[in-house]
Design brief:
alpha/beta, UDP-N-acetylmuramoyl-L-alanine:D-glutamate ligase, Protein-Tyrosine Phosphatase, Chain A, 6-stranded mixed sheet, 20 strands
Amino acid sequence: MMELKDKKILVVGLGKSGLASAIFLRKHGAQVTVSDVRSVEALANDLPALLDVGVMVEAGGHGLLTFRRQDWIVVSPGVPLDTPELAQARGFGTPVIGELELASRFLRGKILAITGSNGKTTTTALCGEIFRAAGRPTQVGGNIGLPVISLVSQSTDDGWNVLEVSSFQLETIVEFHPNIAVILNITPDHLDRHGSMQNYVAAKERIFANQTAEDFSVLNAESVESQPMAARTKARAFWFSARRPVRQGSFVDRDAIVWRASEQSAAEPVLPASEIPLKGEHNIENVLAAVCSAKLAGISNDVIRKAVAAFRAVEHRLEFVARLGGVEFYNDSKATNVDATMKAIASFPGGIHLILGGKDKNSDYTLLAPLLKERVRAVYTIGAAAEKIEGQIGGIVELVRCQTLERAVDQAASQAKSGEIVLLAPACSSFDQFENYEHRGQCFKQYVLARQGVEAWQNVSA
């Protein structure tokens, strides 16, 4: 564990994890300062909790002297590591870590860590349900729900910490050591932050950095990055695939999800694929990864089968919202990159009215073209990326510029016919118009359900 008492520690960025880190550090005796570029007014909701425990707050920008007077710096995931003040601090030899690394120094019990470009939240939530169903003391957090630092106080030596971890969090690990580490997939994402696909892949692979021969790595057999990663990790590599058998791990055999413990073992059925309650082939992969993780943790097939069958889609991930006039509305606000949007479109046979846009992440929207031609009736663009999206997919499908999400819902609902789909799968981050993807998804649902009220009123009036 780190020695915190009387240490001078700076927390950079007052997001959810920054707030939790600052309060944790202060309660353990550190002298804590928080620095954020946002104004005092923007931070008003969080300031009382910090000031009440004696945390000093620097708002409206970062002061160079603030960064020079620290024993440690804890950086929030949303703060780029090339921020000049952080670069200078590292130059002076000040250790810079993230909230995930900080928490891992104090977290008790075993860790199942899950990363990937898409599917992290669904797989993490499903693993949490399976482990709980098996009677294992289980906490779920990280990039989903609670910050990891908030799990420390309730962690136990015999428990499991099931964590969704992002590339931003993995950039700043030093000793973080998962017993089971999963990489679901790697497709272009966050290139505006990482600069290149090579850097992005390297950040993801850090999840294996501190594993030993006693640990397990779980990889997607269909991912081109997986084989070289498996060759580099010290952990025992297991695989999952929705398309072919694997040497050891989980795969689909006819209509069954099966498990093979080793190359010498026979495959054993775990559950029928038809019992998976989630849409899309990508969710079959998510289930396979969860099955592999659960089997490595020693959980029985019967427990896994029942937990998978009882599982429901996580909020904002292909979440069914309502059926109005025969038109179904789906919220996939978590589809914040092109690959996630492609998976969302592929989950439906056609008749899709697709809402795209938000803050661009240096993405290539031309990759959507084949699916747009095959399954999408019209695209409704919103946000800062609208012009780029329209420039890259213009002429492929009808385009309707809506600027705002509310207008997009209205336009799509008015054009969609009975039996068709209105799908929010924006392929962009939400930060141009919303606080986060959850806020965007909640607004989408509000706009849809408001139309439900209008429709009900119209039916009564008629």
